[in-house]
Amino acid sequence: MFPYLDSVARRYSPVIVWAVIGMNVVAFLYQTSLPPRVLDWFLFEFALVPSRFFGQLSLVAPSDWTPFLTNIFLHGGWLHLILNMWTLWIFGPAVEDRLGPGRFTLFYLFCGVAAGLAHALANPDSVVPALGASGAIAGVIGCYARMFPAARLVVIVPILFIPLFFEVRAFIFAMIWFFMQVIPGLLSLGGDQATGGIAWWAHIGGFLAGWIVTPLLRRRAATYRHYYRDEGIYGFLPDGRREGGQGPWT
C-alpha cells in the first residue's frame, strides 16, 4: 500500500515539514556532487555504521554520536528520497499542526535517533552505512495513527501495473505497515549484514518511539482550540473521520 491522500484538517502551514524536505533534497544533491571515493568517506563518517559504536570497528574507527542525527538527512538514491519525502508530506502536516513547529522538530529528531539506535543494536556488527529518513518518518506515521486512528487514507495498491485506489482507516494502515516491518525484521536477526538492505529495525524503532511519546507532546486545548464540525475537509470531520462519528474533534 502506498499512501496517496489523507483527510485530516490542518489550521497552520507545515513549515517544518517543508524545511525538512528542503534539507533532505539539498543534502542529496550535495551527495550526488561528490566523487565516488569522497562519497564513500562521507557516508562512512555521516551515515550510521553500527560497528563503529557496538562492534569491532569501535576499536579501530570509533565515532561520536553525530551519525545518529546526520544519517536521517541522507539518502541512497532518487527513488529512496522521493518515496520518503512523499510519505512525510502525507503524514507530516497534520502531526506538525497538532504538535506545533517546535515540538514537531524535537519529535522528528527524537524518532530519527531512536530509529538509528534500534537499527544499530539489532545489527551491532554491521559495517554497511545506514541512511535515510524512513525511521523518523515511521515515528510520524505512529504519531498520526495514534492521534487520528479513524482518519481515512486513500492508498494506491498496484496490481499488474494498474494502480487501484482504496480507502483505509489510519490505524489499520499503520498496523499493516508495522507488521510488514516486524516480520522481516525478526527474520533478519542474526543474518549477514555485509550486503546491506532495508533497515527494518530502524522502521520498528522509529514507529514505536513516535507511538509512545505522542501523548506527551500533543498541544493542550488551552493553546490550541478544538476544531468545529464544519472545519473538516473533503466532507470529513476535522480528525479525518466520516460524518456521523461520535466524540470530540481535534
From TrEMBL:
One of its GO terms (molecular function) is serine-type endopeptidase activity. The chain crosses the membrane at residues 12-30, 72-92, 104-122, 128-146, 153-178, 198-217. It comes from the Bacteria. Its main location: membrane. The keyword Transmembrane helix applies. Residues 64-219 form the Peptidase S54 rhomboid domain. The keyword Flavoprotein does not apply. It holds the Pfam family Rhomboid. It is a multi-pass membrane protein. Keywords: Membrane, Plasmid, Transmembrane, Transmembrane helix. It is found in: Membrane. GO terms for cellular component: membrane. PANTHER family: RHOMBOID PROTEASE (PTHR43731), RHOMBOID-LIKE PROTEIN 10, CHLOROPLASTIC (PTHR43731:SF26). This is Peptidase S54 rhomboid domain-containing protein. It comes from Ciceribacter selenitireducens ATCC BAA-1503.
